[in-house]
What does this fold into?
Amino acid sequence: EHFARMDFAQTLPSEVTLNVFNRLDLLNLLEVRKVNREWQAYAEDSSIWKNLSYDQYGHLLNRRKEQDLPEEWKTFYIDRYKVENRWTRGEPTSQLNLNGHRESVFCVKILDGGKVMTGGADGQIIIWDLKNKEKELTLSAAAGIMACAYDKKSGHLIAGLLDGTLKIWKLNLDNANRLNSMNVREMKDVLREKSVDFSRCVEKSELKDLIISSRAFPPADLLLNINTELGYLVGMDIQDDLLGVGGGRHDELRIYNIKTGKRTASLRDAVRPSWTPSLKFESKTNLISGNEDGGVRKWDIPNNKVITTIRVNAQPIWAVQSDVTSGLVIWGSRDGTIKAWDSKSDPRRDAIQSMLDHHGEVAGIAVDWERHLFVSSSFDSTVKIWYDTFKLKVEISQHTSPLN
It folds into this structure.
């Protein structure tokens, strides 16, 4: 009887007691902390929550630098647990709306410096400053923009149009920074010099748009126009000086040299041809494509052949992203779902699936794997920004038509 009432946490050495607590799972750990204050102190020991975090989320933590690891391990684990529940149950809600596009938004890309680029059916490419929650610059094209890409090394910004045209710009960051630093009075002075009527402008953003359209400080210089003859361009990605493009009226996927505009390769699945709404380079010799037939394909570019085909969706895959290090592939489809799959596992394994609060087809996905930042766009005209395992952080819904 005396032994039954003995509190081992008081009689055993602390390191032994801590080792016992380290063997408990989450539910038992939460229960035993209710016994008394001493047990609560052991149950909340940082080393226990660190071990739990690495057991459950080591695939994420192992990719972080030492200085980026959590300071409060219990807080990290609990936040992460809540996020994953939201992810699997589809419970996140939006926190912020911004307006910009007049029609559907078809494409979204993450840029450096807390910026996101979107392109829409209104023929506009908008670069958003997420910190200030406003447009930084706008570029216009003669037709709707269904695909976009940006290469930070060269400063090339590329748009794929509904008419099958590729437009390649060189961003002029000096002009963009100069324009963004102007106050209202300075903007009006520039417009007066250009003899541009700004009497109807109410907001500073309207003055900025007028300056851009007047070409007083062009934010980008148009370098190339390429007629691909692929129909409307929906899939696009950059790898060094290579540009991969997929069209909506052709089952051929093409690779172009950005500098020369010349085609360097053409890829086609001879067994099951399907056009390519989305693609992502893994290297200069391999890429992942999301196809109209609902399959995800991995390509050997030099040999023009399919290495692997994953058939996990009944609907066309509009957007796809992959991470070579983790093997994770994420895609969004016409049925409004976003799915994730571990490409290093058995190809027959089911994907993780969630309705991510979009009410239309998921048309664009961008991921910053190092910062755990994930952005999705949809035909419902919204852009949703997720942080740390796809936790919804910001919603941009200024587009008035689908986002790709």
About this structure: Confidence is low (pLDDT under 50) at residues 389-403.
